[in-house]
Write a structure and sequence with these properties.
It is built from 9 helices and 17 strands. The chain is an alpha+beta fold and 366 residues long. The protein folds into 4 domains: 2-95; 116-189, Ubiquitin Conjugating Enzyme (Roll); 202-291, RWD domain-like (Ubiquitin Conjugating Enzyme, Roll); 298-362, 2-Layer Sandwich (Herpes Virus-1). Helix 7 (250-263) crosses helix 8. The N and C termini lie far apart (78 Å). Bound molecules: zinc ion (ZN) (2 copies). One zinc ion binds at residues 317, 319, 322, 324, 352, 354-355, 357. Residues 300-356 form the RING-type domain. Keywords: Metal-binding, Zinc, Zinc-finger.
């Protein structure tokens, strides 16, 4: 009768002592349990039935329990073992639940400290936090933090839109306010850069990127329907001459290059990028005030679209009466399909699909 002494909520269902049904007490709560040993008395063939909650507690140990069933020398010993396994697991669960409550409380304290007005979003499990900062020019900047299990001990992962790499400095005692402060300082250092980029976005036709983010350092600006210039601005030094790459037919971009080289010393760090470029290149950039974007969004002569996934037309026929533009991908596919074309190393030699004039296209690694 040892079993009924240690497990008072079980009742014996047969006279041989092989079938028990009722409840088992774990940490003060009762869980449904039924154990049936076959007439042979072999424990390894016993069936154990538990309620859903008890099953959930024992689930990670199902292999161990099976093994113990075959090794225990008595049903009593076996019941004592599963009781001990389940109670240990309940203790572990309780610690995990406390950890999770502690984490939420800590994060809420940190949000309180930061101010709810600076918070744009927080996920239900508090693992993802978006903080928002509006700069002096009323541009909105968002810092996304992803907190790990060991927050605040471990540095959260962080995602921001800045033109340079941002490293979050973190210590075990850091809070959201520290992260926000670092972001604020970083955003402030790029005001001059963003002002310059904003002027370009407002006063020219930017062909690329389609929707520039705060991190984008380059702009492809239309000069005329068949020529554009891609500039890359140094965010730490936005007043110096940006890196310039012209796109268009050889004869169209040659005078621009020459003009730039001849006037390069005239770059004035006190005036804007557009003023400077206009003077160096001797061009007036077409602007939304004087033209429509469609005039500069020339479609590819092969697929008749402007944007092909991320690509925009970058190959131009050099014949002055043609100047048709093509996507690099489209032109490569077209020329490769023709027996009249030939390839040497990474260059394909063929003819313009429009005017038949000889054309070459370089294969770029993608
Ligand atoms: Zn195309
Ligand atoms: Zn052509």
């Amino acid at each position: 009768m040892d079993i009924l002494h240690d497990f008072p909520y079980l009742t014996l269902q047969d006279i041989k002592g092989l079938h028990y049904d009722g409840f088992i007490e774990l940490k003060g709560a009762l869980y449904r349990l039924e154990v049936k040993v076959p007439a042979s008395g072999s424990l390894s063939e016993a069936t154990v039935k538990c309620d859903a909650n008890f099953t959930r507690i024992l689930n990670p140990f199902s292999d161990i329990i099976k093994q113990r069933l075959s090794q225990c020398d008595s049903l009593h010993g076996f019941l004592k073992e599963i009781q001990s396994i389940a109670e240990n697991q309940l203790d572990r669960n309780a610690v995990a639940a406390t950890d999770s409550t502690m984490f939420c409380r800590q994060l809420l304290d940190h949000i309180e400290l930061l101010g709810w007005d600076k918070l744009e979003y927080v996920s239900d499990d508090f693992r993802e936090v978006h903080m928002v900062f509006t700069d002096v020019a009323r541009r909105k900047h968002v810092m996304k933090l992803y907190t790990g299990k060991q927050y605040p001990r471990d540095c959260p992962k962080c995602s921001v839109q800045l033109p340079v790499k941002f490293d979050l400095h973190w210590s075990a005692h850091a809070t959201l306010t520290d992260a926000y402060g670092q972001f604020e300082v970083s955003v402030d250092t790029f005001q001059d850069f963003w002002n310059k980029m904003a002027e370009i976005d407002a006063k020219t036709w930017v062909l690329e990127p389609e929707k520039p983010t705060h991190a984008a350092k380059h702009r492809r600006i239309a000069i005329n329907p068949s020529v554009s210039v891609q500039i890359t601005v140094d965010p730490n030094n936005p007043r110096v001459l940006p890196d310039c790459m012209f796109l268009g037919s050889d004869q169209a971009i040659k005078p621009l290059r020459q003009s730039m080289n001849a006037n390069i010393s005239a770059w004035n760090e006190e005036s804007g990028i557009l003023d400077n470029l206009g003077r160096l290149l001797n061009v007036t950039f077409p602007s939304p005030a004087t033209s429509t974007k469609e005039e500069f969004r020339l479609e590819c002569g092969i697929c008749y679209s402007y944007r092909l996934e991320e690509e925009i037309p970058s190959e131009v026929c050099n014949e002055s009466r043609c100047q048709q533009v093509f996507h690099q991908t489209c032109l490569v596919d077209w020329l490769r399909a023709l027996s009249s074309s030939r390839q040497s190393f990474n260059t394909i030699f063929g003819n313009c699909p429009y005017c038949e004039k000889a054309m070459t296209v370089k294969l770029m690694a993608r």
